[in-house]
Amino acid sequence: MQLSLEHVGKTVGPAVHLYPQSLSLAAGAVTVLLGATQAGKTSLMRVMAGLDVATTGRVVVDGVDVTRMSVRQRNVAMVYQQFVNYPSMTVAQNIASPMRLRGDRDVDRQVRDIAARLHIDMFLDRLPAELSGGQQQRVALARALAKQAPLMLFDEPLVNLDYKLREELREELTQLFATGDSTVVYATTEPGEALLTAPPPRCFMRPKASAWREPSATRR
To answer: Residue 190 has what pLDDT?
Structure first.
C-alpha cells in the first residue's frame, strides 16, 4: 500500500489537533513517528486509519482519494496504548475474529501459529481478563497481525508495559515487521525505541507546532 498525506490538518472547534502535514509512506516499509506527547501522532494516525476525517488536505491510498472514506471501508489494523480486546471472547476467538470475517479456512492452525510467534499459545482458552497486561497486549498484537491488513498502525503499543516486557515485545515486533508485507506506522515518544524498532527510522519530529522534520530514510 502506498499512502500519502497531502497538507492534512485536523481541528475540533477552535482547537488544533493537527497542523497541516504532508508525507508519503513507502509501501511495505516501517515508518516511525517520533514526537512528544500531544505532538499530534495519534491525531495523524486516526486520520490515516479513517477514524477521523481531516479538516484540510487529502489522504491518498494507491492513487485514490480516501479522505472521507470511513474506517469500515478501509483495510486497516490499529493497536493502541490500552489493551483493547473482546472481553467475552477467549484469546483464540480474539485472534480468529478477523480470519472468520474473511472466511478463511484452517483458522485453528493459523491462530496457533500466530499465538506461538507471540508466545501466548498456552493461553488460547483464557479470557483477556485472566491475563497480565503484557499478555493482553500480545493478544491485541496477534489479532492485528491476523487481519493481514496492508496498513498497520501502532500507537505507542508498549508504553503501559514494564521495561522487561517492552524490551521483549519490541524485539518480537521488529522481527514480525521484517517478515511481513504490510506498510507499518509506529508511534513513540522515545528516540531509543524509534531507533530499535526500525533502524534507521523515518522519524517525523515536531519541534514546532507547524511542521514535522524528516531526518533519515525509511527502513525497508
So the answer is: 87
